[in-house]
Design goal:
Elements: E1 2-12, H1 18-27, H2 30-35, E2 40-43, H3 46-57, E3 80-87, E4 96-104, H4 108-112, H5 123-129, E5 134-139, H6 144-168, E6 176-181, H7 196-204, H8 206-215, E7 221-225, E8 231-233, E9 240-243, E10 246-247, E11 258-259, H9 272-280
Parallel strand pairs: 1-4, 1-5, 5-6, 6-7
Antiparallel strand pairs: 2-3, 3-4, 8-9, 10-11
This protein binds guanosine-5'-triphosphate (GTP) and magnesium ion.
């Protein structure tokens, strides 16, 4: 089993499920382990272990995780999580022990990336992105408006920064970017998860897709689909394609207030492949 250290940043649209992704990883539900027999996720710090409490206290009790607060001045308060993730090898993949450091950015930061009036405020944040090995950028909607006025401008700005900084620091040419469509247990997305590149991104976010594929080769940027919640039964024996998801009925917008329908059938999808690719450049199919 080879040891790999990876320092990544998780950012993207508000409520796209960044914190839930990390909390699900920390909790490592049984069915996630079943998909990768022998998988071990070790939370290395107390802050990371608190993610497990978040899941037990909130998601498994039928409540939804709260959004991260955002104040560009409070850089030092940004949550940082550290894991050791042991992914045993098999015929298809080599085993790795991943020493993973992540920072979980609040969604609002993503909206500020292209804004000229915010550049001074977010300078520390932007600089930090370029001190890492990889980015996991999460999104969850495909509003044509967001394709054109949120995602594409953010990626244009990131690309511009990256190209400028690569000239000074050629190591940045190794930085990998995983672009992830989250909450893919939703009925209209689930069948598309197997080919997220063409079936999710090219079709649903055409402008962003066109820009990204023109600027980045697949060794640097790839598209993924994941769902922290999954569907109720995703193996052939107990097949049940209903999303393992309930929405709170207190008037909170749906995307902000989902929780697990049945924690006992919790079967996250696609959590490991983006991490494995960021660390190794090899894509796993789940
Ligand atoms: N349907 C569904 N909902 C999810 C999934 N993952 C997270 N959610 C819900 O989406 C909402 C936002 O989740 P968060 O994890 O707080 O999202 P975030 O990206 O960290 O949000 P910010 O920190 O505000 O940027 C919550 O109501 C979650 O319960 C998923 O896989 N499927
Ligand atoms: Mg969050």
């Amino acid at each position: 089993m080879s040891n790999i250290s990876n320092d990544i940043r998780i950012f993207g649209a508000r409520s796209s499920g960044k914190t839930s992704y990390l909390a699900t990883l920390a909790r490592c539900p049984q069915r996630l382990e079943d998909k990768y027999p022998g998988l071990e996720v070790i939370c290395r710090t107390n802050e990371t272990k608190k993610l497990i409490d978040l899941v037990i206290d909130i998601l498994e009790q039928g409540m939804s995780i709260a959004g991260n607060s955002y104040d560009p001045k409070l850089w030092d308060t940004l949550p940082e999580y550290q894991f050791i993730i042991k992914i045993p090898g098999n015929k298809q993949r080599k085993g790795i022990e991943l020493d993973l450091l992540t920072k979980d950015f609040p969604g609002e930061f993503f909206y500020d990336i292209p804004r000229t009036d915010k550049q001074d405020d977010i300078k520390t944040w932007i600089d930090d992105l370029f001190s890492t090995d990889g980015w996991m950028i999460m999104m969850t909607d495909w509003e044509p408006r967001n394709d054109i006025s949120l995602y594409k401008p953010a990626f244009e700005k990131l690309y511009e920064e990256l190209s400028g900084r690569e000239r000074i620091n050629p190591d940045l040419k190794e930085l990998r970017i995983a672009v992830v469509m989250t909450k893919c247990e939703r009925g209209e997305l689930w069948p598309c998860r197997l080919d997220p590149d063409e079936d999710l991104f090219e079709v649903r976010l055409p402008e962003t897709y066109k820009f990204l594929t023109q600027k980045f080769k697949p060794d640097r940027l790839q598209f993924f689909a994941c769902s922290a919640f999954g569907i109720l039964g995703d193996d052939l024996k107990n097949f049940d394609p209903r999303p393992n998801c309930l929405f709170e009925e207190d008037g909170t917008p749906e995307e902000d207030a989902a929780t697990l329908r049945d924690p006992r059938q919790w079967s996250p999808y696609g959590l490991i492949p983006p991490l494995y690719w960021l660390a190794t450049g090899i894509r796993l199919e789940e």
